[in-house]
Automatic annotation (TrEMBL):
This is Ubiquitin carboxyl-terminal hydrolase. Zn(2+) binds at C180, C183, C200, H213. One of its GO terms (biological process) is protein deubiquitination. Residues 308-796 form the USP domain. Its EC number is 3.4.19.12. The active site is at C317 (nucleophile), H758 (proton acceptor).
């Protein structure tokens, strides 16, 4: 006790502002359930496992720790399971995780000799007792920052429903036998709650669904609410009510009254149609879901170094799938595991290692690759009876990598591609002082864009990238005869593709990956290109090549298109992906003998007229889907008129912007010097940066897009140099080699949108494919090579 009293100056009583860690070690994935328990520093309130607490003592001199140890309680075999009443995990009324209950024991430990004193004890100094009680009663920082709950979004009450006009036109709706008033459709019918018109729903991207008559009626009349016939039952809240101006499914608290106006007795009606949410759930549990997860297959669990699962923190599968593949690359393994120990990373970390990306990447790398946590759990999988592992929860890593990012810091599902790009950007930033150690470089490559003017002169632009986005040319499908027969059969039966329940009956297009790569490398026309040689607009030819081949090539399959309800949905297609590809033909040749570069200068009046203008075709297509005209124009401008899909994605991301209804301003403002400096840091010349910012209203992101879409405006040597000339410093550090690559990783996606559903990774390890499905890790018997969202290839040298 005297030893403790002599160290009382190292004990703090936590304040409400303190971050208290008591569930997981800051440097490893040790917890109170680990063999050595967990040690909480009573000065900094950081937690450490038994093997790491001495490092903290040596670094900071803090000697007093609260030791927390958890041991499992015995569970009666006949314990009844609780029936869930809420679609949620980790909250009251949600699904029972069936986790064992634990007993906690505490003691006060004094380092360096690990002298242990019992707690609770009246003999302990009052300061220690108050400090420990405060720690134990506080909500741990791990729990505060990563809420382990996943709940379905609830529909909101529509304001339009409370003051909905209804016409006294004598229309009475029969209980069955409905048909669209403007076509022969008898399914997917919507009743407009203002005038009683029955009209069909929206047309799907593949031609199935309705004929858009319901939404067209809204555009003509502005009558806001419609209910889907066939979803009306005694449970009115389950009825599918759609608000066109709110662009969402809503609740109508007066639905009974609104239905009675048209003679509908909801209490006697039967459910005959799926709601929008039910159809999405049905699609999420279809063949793709089962195939990608290899459901129904006897997966052999695998354990050991490199075979550690990641616990799903609640819609974090996008992170898990991405990090499993990233930590299968030599660059990340070397940087954060084999060449950097946990102690080395901790010694370089700031006072709070939970906020240091280098520390948390090293922690995650050692957790995944050491094999320490890849051991069979004490209890077998309840569903299969197989041995399973508990996996490690990447909470602290997620908190750091998602810091200040509105989407990744949320509990919502995210796009694995966007997360991968965000990760590489973060890693590059923290490695800027030691670029040779930057593992993100292994994914980066140079891209050269050549534009051939009708005058015969050319211009070149170079940039760096780390993914190759591939559109899918459906016209290159290799099974066109089967597809035609399938669609003829479907038409003959009079059924929609979404209503086919036997997945064996569905025939999907099969497109070779080689066709997608060739489509990327093919030339395309650029209309309204301003030629400095002709001093006017003309049509030019654009082609793209690579100036370097990365160590790891990532292919992004652009599968998402517009679906029913204006929601981006997945293109139902298979991609035939070979184990080895050769992209040597995509090597850019740079400025060729006899080619003449376009003049640099662009007349100032052209610059003034280069204000962003929305592409009328894109705007017209978006407006036809029901979007606001002004919103559509902004979407086209802010995506540099890249296409309908890009503009639609922008709309969904910015519908709640406070200035979404503000008029488009054509005024140019003074250019902010800090914005100019930012663009210069990207490698652009100052003159080009100023012109771009002036043309883009000072917005850096728009200015960057403007530069890429106005290559003739560039006057820097970087933009017009040939690939045979001296490389810039940024280009010289890019890895390079041959064009042959071997497939080693696949991130597959199940669901109708990148922001819902589930992600799974398949990785080629030690000559066999392994599935990483959150915490489940097993030998893959049927890797879904034709169903990937992201494909990872490793360059074959020699």
């Amino acid at each position: 006790m005297e030893l403790l009293r002599s160290n009382l100056s190292r004990v703090q009583i936590p304040e409400p502002t303190h971050r208290i860690y008591k569930h997981e070690c800051c440097l490893s994935f040790d917890t109170p359930r680990s063999e050595g328990g967990l040690f909480v520093d009573m000065n900094s309130f950081l937690a450490f496992g038994k093997d790491y607490v001495t490092w903290n003592y040596e670094k900071h001199g803090n000697s007093v720790y609260l030791h927390i140890k958890q041991t499992p309680k015995s569970i009666p075999e006949d314990r009844p399971l609780k029936k869930p009443t809420l679609l949620a995990i980790g909250v009251d009324g949600g699904f029972d995780n069936n986790e064992p209950e634990y007993e906690e024991s505490y003691s006060i430990v004094i380092l360096p000799d690990f002298v242990s004193l019992p707690f609770p004890s009246v003999e302990l100094p009052e300061k220690v007792r108050i400090a420990v009680d405060t720690v134990l009663s506080a909500v741990g920082a791990e729990r505060k920052e990563q809420v382990a709950a996943w709940t379905a979004e609830k529909k909101q009450v529509s304001e339009r429903a409370l003051a909905l006009p209804q016409f006294k036109n004598g229309i009475v709706i029969p209980p069955s036998g409905w048909k669209c008033a403007k076509c022969d459709k008898t399914e997917n019918l919507w009743l407009n709650l203002t005038d009683g018109m029955i009209l069909c729903g929206r047309k799907n991207w593949d031609g199935t669904g309705g004929n858009n008559h319901a939404v067209e009626h809204y555009k003509e009349t502005a009558y806001p609410l419609a209910v889907k016939l066939g979803t009306i039952t005694a449970d009115l809240e389950a009825a599918d009510v759609y608000s066109y101006p709110e662009d969402d499914s809503v609740l109508d608290p007066l639905l009974a009254q609104h239905l009675a106006h048209f003679g509908i007795d909801f209490s006697s009606m039967q459910k005959t149609e799926m709601t929008t949410a039910e159809r999405e759930l049905d699609q999420n549990t279809n063949f793709d879901w089962n195939r990608i997860q290899e459901s129904g297959k006897e997966l052999v669990p695998v354990f050991g170094p490199g075979y550690t699962g990641l616990v799903n923190l609640g819609n974090s599968c996008y992170l898990a799938a991405t990090m499993q593949i990233v930590f299968s690359t030599h660059s990340f393994i070397s940087r954060y595991f084999s060449h950097q120990s946990l102690k080395m990373a901790y010694e370089m970390a700031p006072a709070d290692p939970t906020l240091d990306l280098n520390m948390q990447l090293t922690k995650l790398g050692h957790g995944l690759l050491s094999g320490k946590y890849s051991i069979p759990a004490t209890e077998k999988d309840a569903a299969t009876g197989d041995a399973r592992q508990e996996g490690i929860p990447p909470r602290m890593f997620k908190n750091v990598i998602a810091a200040s990012h509105a989407e990744f810091s949320s509990m919502r599902q995210q796009d694995a591609l966007e997360f991968f790009l965000h990760l590489l950007d973060k890693v590059e930033r923290v490695s800027n002082t030691s670029p040779d150690l930057d593992p993100s470089r292994s994914f980066r490559f140079g891209v050269e864009e050549k534009i051939l003017c009708s005058s015969g002169k050319v211009t070149y632009k170079k940039r760096d990238d780390c993914i190759l986005p591939l559109s899918i040319p459906l016209h290159e499908a290799t099974n066109k005869d089967e597809l035609e027969a399938f669609h003829n059969q479907k038409a003959g039966k009079g059924v929609e593709e979404n209503d086919i329940r036997s997945t064996d009956e569905i025939v999907r297009p099969r497109v070779p990956l080689e066709a997608c790569l060739a489509n990327f490398a093919s030339s395309e026309q650029v209309h309204d290109f301003y030629s400095t040689a002709l001093k006017g607009k003309t049509t030019a030819i654009k082609s793209i090549g690579l100036t370097s081949f990365p160590d790891y090539l990532v292919l992004h399959m652009r599968k998402f298109v517009m679906g029913e309800g204006w929601v981006p949905k997945k293109l139902d297609v298979y991609i035939d992906v070979p184990d080895v590809i050769d992209i040597s033909y995509m090597r850019s040749k740079g400025l060729q003998p006899g080619e003449e570069l376009l003049p640099d200068s662009v007349p100032e009046e052209v610059m003034e007229s280069a204000q962003p203008v929305a592409n009328e075709e894109i705007v017209a297509q978006l407006v036809s889907m029901g979007f606001n005209q002004l919103h559509c124009q902004k979407a086209a401008i802010n995506t540099s008129n890249a296409g309908v899909e890009e503009a639609t994605n922008w709309l969904f991301s910015h519908m709640d912007d406070p200035d979404i209804d503000a008029p488009i301003s054509n005024k140019t403002s003074d250019v902010d010097q800090s914005s100019v400096d930012t663009l210069i840091s990207f490698g652009f010349a100052e003159e080009v940066a100023r012109k771009a910012l002036k043309a883009s209203g000072g917005d850096i992101e728009k200015a960057t897009d403007w530069i890429f879409n106005n290559p003739n405006a560039s006057v820097s040597d970087m933009d017009v140099s040939s690939s045979n000339s001296a490389q810039t410093p940024a280009q010289s550090v890019l890895p390079d080699g041959g064009g042959k690559y071997k497939l080693f990783g696949i991130v597959s996606h199940m669901g109708t949108s990148v922001h819902c559903g589930h992600y799974v990774a398949h990785i080629l390890k030690e000559g066999r494919w392994v599935i990483f499905n959150d915490s489940k890790v097993g030998i893959s018997t049927d890797p879904p090579k034709d169903m990937g969202y992201l494909y990872f290839f490793q360059r074959i040298d020699g």
